[in-house]
Design a protein that fits this description.
It contains 47 helices and 17 strands. By secondary structure, the protein is of the alpha/beta class. 62% of the residues lie in helices and 6% in strands. The strands form five sheets. Strands 3-2-1-4-7 form a five-stranded mixed β-sheet, with helices on both faces. A hairpin with a 5-residue loop joins strand 2 and strand 3. The radius of gyration is 39 Å and the shape is elongated. This is CHAT domain-containing protein. InterPro entries: CHAT_dom, TPR-like_helical_dom_sf.
Length: 1141
């Protein structure tokens, strides 16, 4: 059989001929056999009288070898059939043939590798051990039996982690090499390759570098012995590259990496059965490119090439193959690295999808299942850092724990690697949730690892780094100096010894050391600590060059250090320079930039007066930072799967617009302040509206594509209901790609002359036009100051410092006001039974009066005086539009007064607008509304099928009052009686949505609800369900003029994100209504008919052909004045407000 073995070693053609010969022998065609032998010119004579079971098992062996080389599973199945036939024939003939036992065992072991049939491996082991017992010490088959058994026990080691298995595997292969006769030297390279691999696997368990060096030496000797055309050549080169990669990984020596890459690139020459490089070679060269990228942080060419190789390997891998998960895992890792380098979210989303696929492929008992679990935890953590969704971090920690549980207990390197990741993620969650349990676990795990790992272990510096991080966090949390001192003592030797900031992990260690010294300075006031922090930070900035993602955090830390008062390194201009560079760093995502800069700005605010007193240049530097921060805010509003996720994404920077506006107001630049407010507020609605833009001014070659993308992005997905995370993330990735395309297309449109500001915020010259029909007053409250900015009819802007109020008072008063209104609502039905002299009622009334009095004295009266207004009545009073921001939004500015019987309404008729741009847009879209063309949708819901809503007894009366004044034939039918189904108590949500686009006027008399937890779930209570903002905002309203929202809380707004103005009144305004009547808190059911009757009477009593937009606010004001005279308590009348033109 040696002749056929020689033929097999040459190439696949020889293997094919060998298979044909064996098949002919089995069929008894001797003539054909001798013809083959003659053509093959075999030098070794062939004895055709072999036993049939020998022929069968040799045929099976060749098929198995070919299947390993080509990946053809049908060859392996045939090998199993022929091998089993040979084995059974031996049993039937009572023959114990070591050749059959050994080669059949090898086939069963290969099948176990490819199908996870563990019982095949058990059988294989028993067969080959039996073969060894049959062979004498000098039997020529004995080296082969040791080789086969060695591979079997290696797999046992990989499955269990039990060290005796790997020791036996190494010993068996060493024996095989000593037992090989000289005439078998042509097989020696195969044994050397196997021994090298066994040593490498032992190195991974023991971390003994001698095993790694010996493994590489064996691979190199095997390469010298193996002919270049041999089918084993590719495997040898692949294993050699893996060993070299590990050595390069440990040493970080660039010369080693370059040498290994040179070998790898030569190995990429086609050596596979299909004329392509072997998949294993592709993967290892990709590993080396990835490593060089990590060590040098090049221009990205290495990671790009690596990903191309990974994709090629994945493409050539069969989806159902046992190793498919490896290619998914490796591509995930590289996409994660490219994301860290470039910040492209598309890479991160794809990485998460691939990691989930890899994790789902492996069974719970797979020995390598920890790898995909670990990388999935890493990419989920990265997404948490980008998007701030704590669910991602929670899930990442779950996968961390799964990975740690799955690592074989003897797998030292992998165990410590996985533990380090778990520790880092626990520290990260503590920084978000402040749960000391996470810190305790992180510190305990770090200490346990340090106790058991040798002092020269590769991961010991990382563990010390995270131990110090945990101690730092705990020290800050507990204000415990002992933890800070210990953290410095643990970290300083590691940071000083490494001192290689060109390595990706080193800047983090040095950053932590600088933060530790700064933290200790703040506690002990020792200037040496401050100088040490500044020295480390300066060195980092010099070494971590622009283009590296670590530089962003280094800049933020430096800014914080240079901003520290009472230190020798205090340098405000330098701190602001670092801060602006961090904010404009293109290597970091927008959210991270805003979040990091906000952290430093929060440190600036307590020292604002000292900082801004240093000179004009410093003030302008700080202004540039605020302008850049606010410029980034719209980019945070990601077009996600759900409206709620888009809204939540804006929370990170919600205070920047207000403080950013206060700063230019403090330095007398009110025009710039208005631009900042316009750009940084109501971002959620601007994103919604930009998708509905007609794009009429866009060139035709861009208009179609822009419109298509806008329509796709406007669609709201219900993917959140899906249970399959892969499906959800695939859709999220698609939408992110569309969002990026949409933004890129907008940039192209802005390159067109005349469209430079297409879909951007308005500049002051445009904003000033908002006051053409009356003064607009913008109210700003921030931690820096409180101001009123007045735009008069001429477009001039006046700034008023509201020194009588602070942001703290505004916040406290808005909370107090809401509490008082809630208390008034709870007593609504018991009004006649309330003892008006009781202390709770007196206290509530006192709070209400105090808020309204101070609003008048310190906010509204200064505005009235600047405008030069006098007390008057009716239409002799001018209109004023209030544009409150921040927590001013929760206060009834229009109801200010009560001091000496004087009220805001004695001077002006108030309206509100979310932004100046919203008022301009409503006016621009307005066309005169002829009364005879009105289409009114009047909907009253007296009863709802949802049991927790009380019946409303007065809505029928209210609806009838409205219809009484509307022109004949103007009411749109939503049900048989046009208003409500008397049998069911109201209009359904679908019926209302169906007719809403046809409506000029909408009058809703029903329950309203502002959801405090999910503002987009706020809505109107219809007969069958709540009609939410999420559904209403998707409706196109081309005819809309006025919406009268006679329901509770329709302009209440969201307490956590007030400047996004997510409430029902804003929804109607942004959806297309030009004029909206709403309520700031609950209203009384019995007041609805009176207010509606008064408003519609004033609007429609005149003979004017068209409705004057001014009629709406003046009519509402008259109705409210009448209600106030009848019921003077503000909780009753002050709830009614007007929005719009």
């Amino acid at each position: 059989m040696a002749a056929f073995a020689n033929v097999l070693q040459s190439d696949l053609t020889a293997a094919k001929e060998s298979i044909e010969i064996f098949m002919e022998l089995l069929e008894g065609d001797a003539a054909a056999v001798y013809l083959h032998l003659s053509d093959a010119k075999l030098s070794t004579p062939f004895d055709p009288s072999q036993r049939r079971y020998h022929l069968l098992v040799q045929l099976a062996h060749i098929l198995e070898e070919r299947s390993i080389y080509t990946g053809n599973s049908s060859d392996l199945q045939l090998a199993l059939q022929y091998g089993q036939a040979a084995f059974r024939m031996c049993i039937a003939e009572g023959v114990a043939c070591p050749t059959v036992l050994t080669l059949y065992a090898a086939i069963l072991n290969t099948n176990a590798d490819n199908s996870a049939h563990s019982e095949d491996r058990t059988t294989a082991e028993s067969l080959v051990r039996a073969a060894i017992r049959l062979c004498e010490w000098d039997h020529p088959l004995r080296p082969v039996t040791h080789l086969v058994l060695g591979w079997i026990v290696l797999r046992r080691f990989e499955a269990t982690g039990d060290r005796p298995f790997i020791e036996e595997a190494v010993h068996l292969e060493q024996l095989a090499l000593t037992q090989m006769p000289s005439l078998e030297d042509q097989m020696r390279h195969r044994h050397l390759r196997r021994l090298g691999w066994f040593l490498f696997r032992r190195y991974e368990s023991s971390c003994d570098s001698r095993d790694l060096d010996e493994a590489i030496s064996n691979f190199e000797e095997a390469a010298k012995l193996c002919p270049s055309a041999h089918i084993d050549r590719g495997r040898i080169e692949g294993y050699r590259l893996i060993g070299l990669y590990r050595r390069c990984y440990n040493s970080g020596d660039l010369q080693d990496i370059e040498s290994a890459l040179e070998i790898g690139r030569r190995s990429l020459e086609p050596v596979g059965p299909d004329g392509h490089p072997r998949i294993g070679i592709l993967e290892t060269v990709a590993n080396l490119l990835t490593l060089r990228h990590q060590r040098t942080l090049s221009n990205g060419e290495d990671i790009q090439e690596s990903i191309q190789l990974r994709r090629e390997a994945l493409r050539r891998s069969s989806v159902g193959s046992i190793n498919h998960w490896i290619f998914l895992h490796n591509l995930t890792f590289d996409l994660q690295l490219r994301f860290s380098w470039s910040g492209e979210l598309i890479d991160l989303e794809e990485a998460i999808q691939l990691a989930r696929q890899a994790a789902n492929v492996l069974s719970d008992d797979h020995p390598e299942r920890f790898r995909p679990a670990r990388v999935l935890a890493q990419v989920l953590t990265l997404r948490f850092k980008e998007e701030g969704n704590i669910a991602d971090l929670d899930e990442a920690l779950e996968w961390d724990r799964r990975a740690l549980t799955a690592v074989p207990h003897t797998h030292g390197v992998e165990n410590s690697t996985t533990s380090v990741l778990l520790i880092s993620h626990l520290c990260l969650r503590f920084e978000s949730l402040r749960s000391e349990h996470d810190l305790t676990e992180a510190i305990s795990l770090s200490e346990e690892l340090l106790r058991i790992l040798p002092t020269d272990h590769i991961h010991r510096p990382d563990i010390l780094s995270y131990l110090s991080k945990g101690l730092l966090l705990r020290g800050q949390h507990r204000d415990d100096l002992a933890d800070i001192n210990r953290a410095i003592a643990e970290l300083q030797p590691v940071a000083i010894i490494s001192d290689q900031v060109d390595q990706p992990e080193e800047p983090e260690r040095l950053r932590n050391l600088a933060i530790l010294h700064l933290t200790r300075f703040r506690r002990m006031r020792n200037p040496d600590d401050a100088m040490r922090a500044a020295s480390i930070s300066s060195r980092l900035l010099a070494s971590v060059t622009p283009g590296r993602r670590e530089r962003h955090q280094c800049l933020l830390d430096a800014s914080e250090i240079y901003m520290e008062p009472e230190t020798p390194c205090y340098d405000v201009p330098r701190a602001l320079t670092c801060l602006l560079e961090a904010l404009t760093d293109p290597q970091r995502d927008v959210r991270s930039r805003i979040h990091g800069v906000k952290r430093v700005l929060d440190l600036i605010h307590p020292h604002y007066a000292d900082i801004t007193s240093t000179g004009t240049s410093t003030n302008l530097q700080l202004l540039d930072i605020y302008i850049e921060g606010v410029r980034l805010l719209p980019r945070v509003a990601f077009f996600g799967l759900h409206l709620q996720s888009r809204l939540q994404s804006l929370a990170v920077g919600q205070s920047i617009a207000l403080t950013g506006a206060s700063h230019p107001l403090k330095i007398s630049l009110p025009e710039r302040a208005l631009e900042i407010l316009e750009q940084g507020r109501v971002t959620f609605w601007r994103h919604v509206l930009r998708l509905r833009s007609p794009f009429d001014d866009v060139p035709a070659e861009l208009r179609g594509e822009l419109s298509t993308l806008a329509r796709q992005l406007e669609k709201v997905s219900d993917m959140g209901l899906a249970q399959d995370a892969l499906v959800v993330e695939a859709e999220a990735t698609r939408r992110k790609r569309l969002s990026r395309e949409f933004e890129c297309l907008l940039e192209r449109v802005r390159d067109v002359p005349g469209l430079e500001r297409f879909l951007l915020h308005d500049e002051f010259a445009t904003l000033a036009k908002a006051s053409e029909r009356g003064p607009v007053v913008v109210l700003v409250a921030s931690s820096l100051a409180c101001h009123a900015v007045v735009l008069n009819a001429s477009g001039e802007v006046t700034m008023i410092a509201l020194d009588g109020v602070t942001e703290a008072w505004v916040v406290e008063s808005s909370a107090s006001w809401q509490s008082a209104m809630t208390a008034a609502r709870s007593q609504l039905r018991d009004r006649l039974h309330i003892d008006k002299k009781t202390n709770p009622l007196k206290a509530r009334c006192a709070r209400i009066e105090a808020v309204l009095h101070r609003l008048w004295t310190d906010v509204v009266r200064p505005v009235v005086r600047i405008l030069g207004l006098e007390m008057s009545v009716g239409r002799n009073r001018p209109r004023v539009w209030w544009c409150p921001t921040g927590h001013f939004l929760h206060l009834p500015i229009h109801a200010a007064g009560g001091v000496d019987g004087v009220w805001c309404s004695d001077y002006v008729v108030s309206s509100y607008t979310p932004t100046l741009g919203a008022l301009l847009a409503a006016r621009s879209a307005y066309t005169p509304v002829k009364k005879r063309n009105i289409k009114a949708l009047v909907a009253a819901v007296s009863e709802s099928t949802m049991s927790h809503w009380n019946d409303l007894a007065s809505v029928r009366e209210e609806a009838s009052a409205v219809v009484r004044y509307l022109p004949a034939g103007s009411v749109l039918a939503t049900s048989p009686d046009h208003i409500f189904r008397r049998a069911e108590g109201g209009v359904t949500a679908e019926a209302l949505l169906f007719r809403l686009p046809d409506a000029t006027i909408l009058h809703l008399a029903c329950h309203g609800h502002q959801d405090p937890d999910s503002p987009l779930k706020s809505g109107f209570v219809m007969q069958d369900e709540v009609l939410t903002i999420e559904r209403l905002m998707l409706v196109s309203l081309p005819r809309a003029f006025m919406a009268f929202l006679s329901a509770c809380e329709t302009a209440k707004g969201d307490k956590s994100q007030p400047d996004q103005t997510v409430h029902l009144a804003a929804t109607m305004l942004f959806a297309g209504f030009k004029s909206v009547i709403a309520t700031l808190w609950s209203m009384e059911d019995v007041d609805g008919p009176m207010i509606a009757n008064s408003v519609y009477k004033d609007m429609f009593d005149s003979d004017a052909e068209c409705i004057d937009p001014d009629d709406v606010p003046y009519a509402l004001d008259a109705a409210v004045q009448e209600l106030r005279r009848a019921h003077p308590e503000p909780s009753r009348w002050a709830t009614y407000v007007h929005f719009g033109i």
